[in-house]
UniProtKB/TrEMBL annotation, chains A, B:
Annotated ranges, domain HTH lacI-type: 24-78
Organism per entry: Arthrobacter nitrophenolicus
Protein's recorded name: LacI family transcriptional regulator
CDD domains: HTH_LacI (cd01392), PBP1_LacI_sugar_binding-like (cd06267)
Region (Disordered): 1-23
Stored Pfam families: LacI, Peripla_BP_3
SUPFAM superfamilies referenced in this protein's UniProt entry, alphabetically: lambda repressor-like DNA-binding domains (SSF47413), Periplasmic binding protein-like I (SSF53822)
InterPro entries: HTH_LacI (IPR000843), LacI/GalR-like_sensor (IPR046335), Lambda_DNA-bd_dom_sf (IPR010982), Peripla_BP_I (IPR028082)
Record-level Gene Ontology MF annotations: DNA-binding transcription factor activity; transcription cis-regulatory region binding
Domain of life: Bacteria
Record's keyword terms, sorted: DNA-binding, Transcription, Transcription regulation
DNA sequence: CAACTTATGGCAATCGCTTGCCGCAACATT
DNA sequence: AATGTTGCGGCAAGCGATTGCCATAAGTTG
């Protein structure tokens, strides 16, 4: 009874009503229901286009065969893949986990699936992925893109995409307004009596790193503080030791750190060196990632609605993919942030 | 010069040599190179099948058009999607991050892309995803599957899959050998003088939770300890408070906790209640996730090669997808674990 | 009752690529 | 010179859906 399979049929698992080894196609459903494939297709996607009675027969047939349409074939004609690629520089980094969580959530709600890509902090890999996946994803979410402005502009011109934490005139972006919270942080530090402050820098290719530094420099100077900058550092806890040592050498009494990962690494190093936080040195992180609340001491940091940023990014992408005739879609979303004060900041020493 | 696009052509971004708005197809390449599409196809996938000279001409044409084959169309004929779905119960949980990192790594190496799915701890969603994505993924990696044995057996019979932390006779599995480290942990606790111990349970549907408890019970009894079990708890830090309170009520002096997330949550609660760890209560976590080393106090825990487990799972899946004629592929991989002693365990009180 | 609509389902082209089969030319072999 | 080999490309048939167009039947309208 089994159709002579073309490929090497694997023999196991032919229990139950499974008709053949092969996946059921729309044709099988059509035959079982006694209609043409076109009717099956319509019954399944445009129910109104088909007679109530026929439709039901088809649905039963489909259910009986356990039929699932091939997304590939569907995509072939429609040109859509039902997929969105999310590119992050480093899956290792909890910051991106939250983004991923956000995009995943929103994509699922839209019936799309998420293709996750780690670009390993490399603009080449990013560009390459963007290129290779052009055909396999309907759109892209670029988290903390490492692309140059020119590259980004070019890519944005040829495929739907939205960036996170990387503003650009050429692509819709959602940016997290960390700068304004940096001002809050400096305020906080100033009120604690700090006047020698240090910015601990992240990856040189990071757009948000530059933004943060710019605001930090400007605002701390305005306040008449002694401003230092160290870095760049790879934003991982393991770089924290070098960062902490360098920070100590500057003589600053408080650091604003590119991100929490690095800040937590510094905390560990400072503790190891017997430097007390916040008594001897205050530390402000950024992002409020998983772990910032239970490290030792709990980290004062800039809380960002990261997951929400991921969700908004997807929403913007969707409105780009299915434009509504009326309104132009939003080109920029700014996510608010705030300073969360925990225990890694305190009065300046002396 | 522009072909009258069928859809509403978007006008921007027609800079550069982009010929039309449409993506170049194999046909475009064929025309430009002056050959048939079949030749292009072969030149690109089976280079030997085509003359060196022709091949080069084709490659140039492809490069010039910036051609990328449609994975959809490719898949249509080959039946492959070039994609593997990874199902995790909760993307929120750092444990799975490490798995994802591992699978991602190995998949990329194999030229496959990863479809990430969050099943939200629900066996229905898991089953549903497995069903709906049957056609869009070549195989599945089920991390900590919530499926029943019967469900798992059925699914495993009809599609290539490998499980992580869920042994089954019906599917290749990689399991993390936490149980043997639980014995180590009890050894450690016993040597510190603890004789009232408590297992803090995770999700009732978790296979590994059951395994851990079984070993815990058996071994602690064998040692003549007073054995308690509390739970189930949702394995998040937020459940830690309830878990900590319940643990305290048992009178145990040491807890072995289902996972680090829960353990860290307990740490926080115990600290809030003024219970000192490890002086008043020792805590042993499980998995050694991100954060276990910098929480307060740093957590004694069962270190697991999580990322590696993800990698091995993919390797096993691949050998299932591309079976070598000779050897039968491995059905079970056991990943070794060990106890990492930090500062959340200490001598029993009294 | 003729002329129109409308509802419904089938036919066949199409999407982009792969692949079995065939043809042809250039060599190699008796 | 006749007959095999090879190497190389083209033809055309799929793969599994979608969809424009058409045919048929049934219901409406004047």
């Amino acid at each position: 009874m089994i159709t002579p399979a073309t490929g090497p049929a694997h023999e196991e698992a032919r229990k139950g009503p499974a008709p053949a080894d092969r996946m059921p196609t729309i044709k099988d459903v059509a035959e079982l229901a006694g209609v043409a494939t076109s009717t099956v297709s319509r019954a399944l996607s445009k129910p109104d286009r088909v007679n109530q009675h026929t439709r039901q027969r088809i649905q039963e047939a489909a259910a009986q065969l356990n039929y699932v349409p091939s997304s590939q074939a569907k995509g072939l004609s429609s040109g859509r893949t039902g997929t969105v690629a999310v590119l992050v520089p480093d899956i290792t980094n909890p910051f991106y986990f939250d983004i991923i969580r956000g995009t995943q959530h929103q994509l699922k709600a839209a019936g799309l699936t998420q293709l996750l890509v780690d670009t390993e902090e490399s603009s080449e890999m990013e560009l390459d992925a963007l290129h290779k996946m052009r055909r396999s994803a309907d759109g892209f979410v670029l988290a903390a893109s490492r692309l140059t402005d020119a590259q980004l502009a070019e890519v944005a011109g040829s495929q739907p995409l939205v960036t996170i934490n990387r503003a650009s005139a050429d692509a819709p972006s959602v940016v997290i307004d960390t700068p304004s919270a940096i001002i809050q942080a400096l305020d906080h530090l100033a009120s604690l009596g700090h006047n020698r402050v240090c910015y601990v820098g992240g990856p040189p290719t990071s757009w948000s790193n530059e933004m943060r530094w710019k605001v930090f420099e400007e605002d701390s100077r305005r306040r008449g503080m002694e401003t230092h900058r160290i870095g760049p550092f790879i934003p991982k806890t393991t770089s924290g030791a070098a960062a902490a040592d360098a920070a100590l050498r500057t003589g600053a009494t408080a650091c604003v750190v590119f991100n929490d990962l690095l800040a937590i690494g510094m905390l560990q190093r400072l503790q190891a060196r017997g430097i007390r936080v916040p008594e001897d040195m205050s530390i402000v992180g950024s992002d409020d990632i998983f772990g910032a609340d239970f490290c030792n001491p709990p980290l004062t940091t800039i809380s960002s609605p990261i997951e929400q940023a991921g969700r908004v990014a997807v929403a913007m992408l969707l409105s780009q993919l299915n434009p509504v005739p009326g309104g132009a879609s939003r080109k920029l979303a700014v996510m608010p942030t705030h300073l969360t004060i925990r225990q890694s900041t305190g009065p300046a020493p002396d």
